[in-house]
Amino acid sequence: MTTKNRKITEDFILKYIGKLIPGSETNAQLYKDLFARMDDKAFDDWMGKLARKEIRLAIIAPNLSKEKVTIPNNLAIGDELGHNFFERLWIDNGNDIPPYLSPVKYLVGDITLRRQAQVLVKKISIPEDNRSVDDMTGQPSGKSEASKISYPETQVLSALKLDKNIAEMISLRGGDTQGFNAMNDSFARTGGASQKAIEHLRGGVKSTQALNTILTAMHYQVSGLVT
Questions:
Q1: 3-class SS at 101?
Q2: pLDDT grade, residue 181 (50/70/90)?
Q3: Rounded Cα gap, residues 182 and 180, in angstroms
Q4: Is the pTM of this model over 0.90?
């Protein structure tokens, strides 16, 4: 890359990095200082990594700062660069309905994806038995305790419409002792279990009953607790 072309490239990057957060000069100055430390070979290598998507341009947006990243400003920059963030999508429901192109354009872009921190890999826990439960909650404890389901994981299951799985995790395996025993008995006798089949044998989640007792003792009127 010639010195002239490098200057044009640097100016282009500095211009639009600066535009991403109007009023802030921090990010543009960081890249200006970075370029000043690079010789031509280092700059060519850096641009090559950008082209191969091995690295990406990044900006710093401090919390509680007056200057912020805004959607209208980003859309305006996209228009200025000739980039359209909105596209019509091909939708395939995976059934007898043929794939079709959406009549409405949707925002399409890269986002950060992070796996749930609660996913167990190396530290997976296997219970020794299913005979120990907490007296107050009715939930597995001691040698019977394994991994737990968190609220974010419950939200994921709900988004996937796996309501029966949620009911099993937070009710039958989460403190409903009578329902848990009925489910295990069904496993032992038939090799399987149906929530509908054992519905009449369930007794409610003990932790909810304990909470109801505690709140009542505190003279709080309780209603709507899920059991």
A1: strand
A2: confident
A3: 5
A4: no
